[in-house]
């Protein structure tokens, strides 16, 4: 399963609206850690494992085909910490091991049937959103509260842009109903996650400095 790299285009469209400190590439949190290839492999595997773990934090909503999970927080936080390439690779690994049969998807699901179901578009969105948020973090968006929240909002929008049309097609829903069932009802939780990320990432950078 693959998606086009949405990161650069999303960054281009949103950079004017986000208070980014610089347009030049900067370090992300992963770069602070010592090591090179071994470090990168460990971080990619770690974020993929964290995504699988948070996928099991599942709260079904009666009448809706997509449950509330902790995945988006892990995906976007991991992307900001790892940067666009490693963050995207972590999600490719996550989806790949799920396709291979490991029960890493929500509810312990695995295989092509899970990816082709109502949540499949969101899995695609994880890869694209990781590229977008990681690229924004490379420009320093994770070092201040408002820009971190803005980057998280961009990543969330990318996930919904992939997930909602997929949901509409798979479930045979009008796009408006799919938007309500697959995005709008989750926005309060997304706002809480964005606030947590906005407090956490800049605080970590202050400690690093």
UniProtKB/TrEMBL annotation:
One of its GO terms (cellular component) is plasma membrane. InterPro entries: BioY. PANTHER family: BIOTIN TRANSPORTER BIOY. The chain crosses the membrane at residues 73-94, 114-137, 149-169, 175-205. It holds the Pfam family BioY. It is a multi-pass membrane protein. It comes from the Bacteria. Its main location: membrane. It is found in: Cell membrane. GO terms for molecular function: biotin transmembrane transporter activity. Keywords: Cell membrane, Membrane, Transmembrane, Transmembrane helix, Transport. Belongs to the BioY family. This is Biotin transporter. Gene3D superfamilies: 1.10.1760.20. The keyword Phosphoprotein does not apply.
């Amino acid at each position: 399963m693959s998606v086009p790299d949405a990161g650069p285009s999303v960054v281009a469209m949103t950079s004017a609206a986000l208070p980014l400190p610089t347009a030049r590439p900067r370090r992300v949190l992963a770069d602070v850690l010592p090591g090179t290839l071994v470090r990168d492999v460990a971080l990619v595997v770690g974020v993929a494992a964290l995504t699988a773990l948070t996928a099991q934090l599942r709260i079904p909503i009666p009448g809706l085909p997509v449950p509330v999970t902790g995945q988006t927080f892990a995906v976007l936080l991991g992307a900001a910490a790892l940067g666009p390439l490693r963050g995207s690779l972590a999600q490719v690994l996550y989806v790949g091991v799920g396709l291979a049969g490991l029960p890493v998807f929500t509810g312990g699901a695995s295989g092509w049937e899970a990816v082709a179901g109502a949540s499949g578009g969101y899995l695609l969105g994880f890869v694209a959103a990781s590229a977008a948020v990681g690229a924004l973090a490379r420009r320093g968006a994770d070092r201040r509260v408002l820009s971190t929240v803005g980057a998280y909002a961009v990543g969330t929008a990318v996930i919904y842009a992939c997930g909602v049309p997929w949901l509409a097609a798979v479930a045979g829903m009008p796009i408006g109903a799919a938007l309500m069932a697959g995005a709008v009802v989750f926005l309060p939780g997304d706002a809480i996650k964005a606030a947590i990320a906005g407090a956490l990432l800049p605080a970590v950078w202050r400690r690093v400095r």
